[in-house]
């Protein structure tokens, strides 16, 4: 279980994360939504050790992660993919995966051997298969399509067998069709791997369709957290953020209920 | 697969050595073997620099300090102690590794431009130390009086042919080892830190440690280049530790290419050939070299080997594409 207790982070006078307390149950799929500047990415940066909170605790299975380095947090089981695909442009897909697996197994200082373990290869292969990247394995990451670069970024996070997978706008920069493909992959992944997945997403159709648990951030605060129905019905959320945007067929029904 | 790649390197190295060994037999006179020995010294140095520049993305302007350090440490050990050549060689490598660990620990944390300048600063420090510590180094006169070359294991480096073969062996073994490093797991980790250090950090890679190891390894091979040079000239001179050596290393990498392992080796041959021919024809060799560098930097925009391989790849791509179109 991932538990955030009273997390705070300020930049100058701006409270980017303001007393955020949240719980993500094991095996849950959660979406984080909120307007630009709501502190969504900051929250991910706090969870992964890229930023250090001013106060508060981050507990993964009861152990505090605050103060650990990025590398140590990764090893505790929090993996992350980025809004702008963060990959290794000059490496091929296969090289990327094997190098990442080896880094995870702490074999990356080996001077005399290339990708030594059969296990390393199998792990890399299985992740590529899972994400449908296997037939791209000999291409350089820089030459992949935008969508495949995003998938490779996710694959890098998966290599480490995370307990919690954080996806920062997995569908950013994609066309409508590509978005659904991507989100189906994420959903499929979540169902098969039984890991905790938290993703940031702007597309409300996607969020309300696939996320059983939604967190709404606004000005660094948690405005609401709960099921899609509860969020649709939440007056604070409607007032501050959703407005009439969800007054689509399903939205109106729940709002009226 | 793994074993096969290593075997290919060893066989390739053996073949290269056989070719080098045949040079004095096929071409009479001293010029060709001497040229090869200089290529060995500079080639080891330039290839080791490419470990940093090409594979690690670390632009060092002070790498020449390890070339000079190798030459001086080895020369001094041979002149002032009773060590055998292999022992002095091993100790020289240890000294270079130790110095590189200290300097690297300070430098590898720095961002690009600061890394470049601080490495340059350390080079100048070592250079001025050599100039000013006259009692030990002979100051600006260098280590004179020749470097003794006692026979070891039946090898007599005072013999020209044996010296030639030893230098050729040092080159080939050095290149094979560096190629193994580049192809190793560590080599790929180094590329990760070059491409995207932040992401590597998120994979649990200790970026500073990876860079430090690369810095020390590169220093060791540069120092071997220096040892070869000191054996060749039977001495060591402050020029070996001057920043211009680092500059030459950069030129070589620009000439030959940094994306292919043997690029710097090709660059070494080009630079030394240019040096030898141009200085024979004109005093203004600097101008000629400058024009050549400009041609590579602005005209090709990459080193020769990079250029050639890119063209081949392009041609192959169009060859694959055109039948589909037709």
What do these coordinates show?
The complex is a heterodimer of chains A (257) and B (326). Chain A has 257 residues and is an alpha/beta fold. Helices cover 40% and strands 23% of the residues of chain A. In chain A, strands 6-7-8-3-9-10 form a six-stranded mixed sheet, sandwiched between helices. In chain A, strands 2-1-4-5 form a four-stranded antiparallel sheet, with helices on one face. In chain A, helix 3 (93-104) packs parallel to helix 5 (146-159). Residues 245-257 of chain A have low confidence and may be disordered. Chain B has one domain (2-242). Helix content of chain B is 78%, strand content 0%. Chain B has helices at residues 2-26, 31-55, 64-80, 85-107, 112-132, 134-137, 160-183, 185-195, 197-202, 207-233, 243-256, 263-281, 285-300, 304-325. Chain B is globular. The two termini of chain B are 38 Å apart. The mean pLDDT of chain B is 89. The chains are: A alpha/beta (257), B mainly alpha (326). At the A-B interface, helix 2 and helix 3 of A face helix 7, helix 8, helix 9 and helix 10 of B.
Which overall shape of chain A is indicated by the principal axes computed on the Cα atoms? globular
Spans of chain A with pLDDT under 50 lasting ≥5 residues?
Answer: 245-257
Please compute the radius of gyration of chain A using only Cα atoms.
19 Å
The overall pLDDT of chain B, averaged over residues, is 89
Structural class by secondary-structure content of chain B = mainly alpha
Computed Rg of chain B: 20 Å
State the helix count of chain B. 14
- What summary fits the major beta sheet of chain B? none
* Distinct helical segment count of chain A: 10
CATH architecture of the domain at 1-66 and 198-257 in chain A: 3-Layer(aba) Sandwich
Gap from first CA to last CA of chain B: 38 Å
Strand content of chain B: under 5%
Q: Work out the number of β strands of chain A.
A: 10
Q: Shape of chain B, please?
A: globular
List SSEs of chain A in N-to-C order: EEEHEEHEHHHEHEHEEHHH
How far the N terminus sits from the C terminus of chain A, by CA atoms, comes to 32 Å
Find the count of extended strands of chain B (DSSP E, 2+ residues): 0
What level of helicity do the residues of chain B show? over 70%
